[in-house]
TrEMBL record:
Keywords: ATP-binding, Glycoprotein, Kinase, Membrane, Nucleotide-binding, Serine/threonine-protein kinase, Signal, Transferase, Transmembrane, Transmembrane helix. GO terms for cellular component: membrane. It holds the Pfam family PK_Tyr_Ser-Thr. It is found in: Membrane. Its main location: membrane. Signal peptide: none annotated. The keyword Glycosyltransferase does not apply. It comes from Cuscuta campestris. This is Protein kinase domain-containing protein. Residues 387-409 are annotated as: Disordered. It is a single-pass type I membrane protein. Belongs to the protein kinase superfamily. CDD domains: STKc_IRAK.
Amino acid sequence: MRNVLPDGILNGLEIMKISNSKNSLVAEILFSKTSSKSKRWVVIGSGFGAVCLVGLALASILVHRRRRRRAVIELSKYSEEPSSVLNSKTGYLIPFKAVQEATDNFCEEMIIGIGGFGKVYKGMLKDGTKVAVKRGNRHSNQGLSEFMTEIEMLSKFRHRHLVSLIGYCNEMNEMIIIYEYMANGALKNHLYGSEHLLPKLNWRQRLEICIGSARGLHYLHTGSEKAIIHRDVKSANILLDENLMAKVADFGLSKDGPEMDQTHVSTAVKGSFGYLDPEYLTRQQLTEKSDVYSFGVVMLEILSGRPVIDPSRPKETANLIEWAMKEMKRGELETILDPHIKEGLKMESLQKFAETVEKCLAECGPDRPTMGEVLWNLECALQLQGREDKRTGEGTPSTPPDDISTCTTPFSVASMGDLEGVSMSRAFSQMVKSDVKDLSDKI
């Protein structure tokens, strides 16, 4: 009985073979003699087309896999040997699940910023640490490069005026960087932006923010044997903590500076429109002075309380740099001031600040100061504004001291605390280059 059912099925299948009216199982030829050739070419053409389609499909799959493999290979540098990039003091590899939990599965309500690299979310780790989570666009080749550069840079440098790296995640080809949370967001939003609820910054606060940012950039330029050039200094990349302490952020475009015996690095132009150094833009010659120029633009934004490019304004005032520099050369400095800083502002402090802006925005790099010199000038401007009364939080009503000898040397006691971690050879190199320039000017 066991074989009856299978045999029956097989017999039935045989009976169901197609037969003609003569009960013959031999198939008839369906093509007529006259059309057999044309039909044959149709069949051949169809077959050839199908083969081509299959070939194209296979080729596209191979290309996609090769690109994906490249991305995985690049990212594996960090996932297979995370200790080569991150150590226990600077950050660690964070599981994707933990990042999801920290951001409530990347909830739209948690978004605190959107940039070219991707979206930034506010989050909280299990231990209660508030963090900012930047999730990159996985389909951007440039994003992958920036992702790796930023991890490398942030893991090498630690400074109180640079945003700290908490960790990163590269599971499933994700490009996620976790930073310390900066409660007061970007400087840009306190100067203009769309967030009108933010209180406007007074002059002293703006000076202190400039000084903090300058310290961070000065450390990048002198904190190791080879300078690091940020390449994207702008008000959106200067973040403020709960105490309005400034920290430089976003190191995705950062690049090693020139060697001791080199004047510049030749590289493709990258950065933000309106902040780019003219020499770098036209000659593709990158130096530390490129950051100085960009920082000068930020200082101008701080002074005026408006963006570097404002299409809503008349043509003659739409470009902040052109308009402000023209007004300053005419001696009309007050016309470019943000009304929110006029109260309690001391002219000596303002003039020192404006002079520094003009030097930073010099067309030629050698004519610009180093970040160390910029830092000293800003500290001098703060001293000229007057010391802060700790009881009231306001500047003292007394006039600046007659003896301002502390503003006559770029190595004041006030800035000595920022020399920790600075490469003396790099700082000395900047001094020598500056002295050579001054000597050549005199000759």
